[in-house]
Design goal:
By secondary structure, the chain is α+β, with helices and mostly antiparallel strands. It has helices at residues 7-23, 51-61, 110-160, 167-181, 215-231, 283-325, 334-348, 353-365, 375-378, 386-392, 395-403, 413-418, 439-454, 465-474, 482-488, 494-506, and strands spanning 3-4, 27-31, 37-39, 70-72, 76-85, 88-98, 184-191, 205-209, 238-241, 253-261, 264-274. Strands 1, 2, 3, 4, 5 and 6 form a six-stranded mixed beta sheet that branches. It is rod-shaped.
Length: 521
């Protein structure tokens, strides 16, 4: 009889059989088909049994379909149990049963030896079935785990594809998710410069895990992977045998997954240093990388389209606000400067990239409601009457009404509506105070006032930089959020001054003071 035991189960099944045979006082050897002994009994072997004797018996069994027990001159029966893997005999377990009735376990005749042989074969088959069942359960558990991890990882990646305003966060998160799921020592995404359509990730390398070398080695691996991908164009993952000039720490194989846009290679996912029992890259791992590469390619397409649409949208908003600002020569470029200052203040205050962008757009359109204010009031020389000032005070509400019909601008409306509120509650239109004023509006309100004080108005000349900054400090806690006032003192105003110079060059009548700024304490 024989047992077809998978290679992973053979050692475990053999150990169980040897342990049980030892309890029956049977010595057991393990031999290769060539007759070479690979394992001897742990206890004292039966007397008179030599490796030559065992080798001769194994060679004699080679042609027997069902090897039978053999009696040898030392007075022992050799009981063979062939090990079979994929229908090929890969070795033998040989139990030795003595004839001597005084030997441990008693003596065996031909009849009892053959009966014992059948019992051992049945035991082996039972152990085989049990071990294979455990292996099947283990494989099934592994497959279920891999399936769950695949679904979980790809779901997470797919859900994150909505982060169109933060492509670097998406790519970094994807690389970390893949590295957490797959058994590679390190995994990286490398994007070509000026290729993805996203300045945040063009030419960037995102790595998760520990790369076993320096940047020069990493560059060599990257170049090697790109060279192999160039010779095998396609969208699937490419398994590359590690060349001799790359250290063994990277493992025997490197896997490279191309990421393409419009047929052009724009990025590559590279992984190596695989751990676990199997050093070779599996189909599960390549399929996971191929799915991730497909997600990344689609994401890059979406972000590039989003960037184009955003650029067109912002350009339209700038043109609209510039047209409104141009109604009054004293406010030309005002909205663009307020938007830029608001963006820098939001960044300095620690807002995330999405919130900073919303503040910027809100800053651009904060005065759009002035389109509903009579031009005679906007362009009046000298101070306004109370009635005229009441008309000016309507512009936040007018702007809110104009923009609220655009669903994509809903998040920026608080800045438009409330940028003239005051920290002490004496502002307009709702007389909100303190933190009841939306943060976006507090930021824009401070930037708006800074630009207004820095610019010449019909009723007064521009204030100097030092005077403006001192006024902001003085009004912290009354007109302005005191925390934002402190943060503003750390904002670099060089970009603002450059914008002022640009607006002055476009309009020689534009007047503004950009004198030296006091250093922050």
């Amino acid at each position: 009889m024989s047992c077809r035991v998978p290679e992973r189960a053979r050692a475990s099944a053999g150990a169980i059989v040897r342990e049980r045979c030892a309890e029956l006082s049977l010595a057991v050897w393990r031999l290769e088909p060539s007759g070479r002994v690979t394992q001897s009994p742990e206890a004292t072997p039966a007397q008179g049994i030599t490796e030559d004797t065992l080798r001769e018996a194994v060679l004699a069994w080679a042609d027997a379909p069902e090897p039978a027990p053999v009696r040898i001159d030392s007075g022992h029966w050799l009981l063979p149990i062939p090990e079979v893997v994929r229908r090929e005999r890969t070795g033998y377990l040989v139990a030795v049963a003595p004839e001597d009735p005084n030997a441990p376990g008693g003596g065996h005749t031909e009849t009892t030896a053959r009966a014992l042989h059948r019992m051992l074969a049945w035991m082996w088959n039972d152990v085989d079935l049990g071990e294979n069942a455990l292996l099947d359960l283990d494989r099934f558990s592994t497959q279920m785990t891999e399936a769950y991890e695949t679904i979980h990882t790809l779901y997470g990646i797919g859900r994150a594809m909505g982060q169109l305003t933060q492509p670097d966060h998406f790519v970094r998160g994807m690389v970390e998710e893949l590295h957490d799921t797959l058994p590679f020592g390190w995994l990286a995404c490398l994007a070509d410069a000026d290729a993805t359509g996203n300045p945040e990730i063009d030419g960037i390398r995102f790595t998760s895990g520990t790369f076993p070398g320096d940047d020069r080695l990493f560059a060599r691996v990257h170049r090697y992977a790109l060279g192999e991908l160039a010779r095998a164009p396609g969208d699937g993952a490419l398994i590359i045998d590690r060349p001799d000039d790359i250290p063994e720490a990277l493992g025997p194989q490197i896997v490279a997954q191309p990421v393409r846009r419009a047929g052009k290679l724009v990025a590559v996912l590279v992984a190596a240093s695989k751990g676990g029992e199997e050093p070779q890259v599996s189909s599960y791992e390549t399929l996971m990388l191929e799915a991730a590469g497909g997600f990344l390619g689609a994401f890059l397409d979406n972000t590039a389209l989003y960037a184009e649409q955003e650029e067109a949208f912002v350009g339209t908003v700038r043109a609209m606000t510039a047209a409104i600002d141009a109604k009054d020569r004293y406010t030309r470029g005002h909205s663009e400067r307020v938007a830029m200052l608001s963006k820098r203040l939001a960044e300095a205050a620690g807002l995330d990239a999405a919130a900073v962008h919303e503040v910027y757009i809100s800053g651009l359109v904060h005065d759009v409601g002035k389109i509903g204010v009579p031009e005679r009031v906007l362009c009046k020389t000298g101070r306004l009457t109370d009635e005229e000032f009441d008309l000016i005070r309507e512009h936040p509400g007018i702007g809110h009404e104009i923009l609220k019909v655009i669903p994509s601008l809903a998040s920026i409306l608080p800045g438009v509506m409330h940028h003239h509120e005051r920290w002490d509650g004496n502002g307009y239109p709702a007389r909100l105070s303190g933190t009841d004023i939306p943060l976006m509006a507090r930021i824009i309100g401070l930037a708006d006032t800074f630009d207004a004080m820095s610019s010449t108005r019909s009723y007064r000349p521009a204030m100097t930089r030092d005077v403006v900054l001192a006024e902001i400090t003085r009004c912290a806690g009354s007109q302005f959020d005191p925390d934002l006032a402190k943060v503003f003192d750390k904002v670099d105003l060089s970009e603002y001054d450059a914008l002022v110079a640009e607006h002055k060059a476009a309009d020689p009548t534009f007047e503004q003071d950009t004198g030296p700024r006091l250093k922050a304490a």
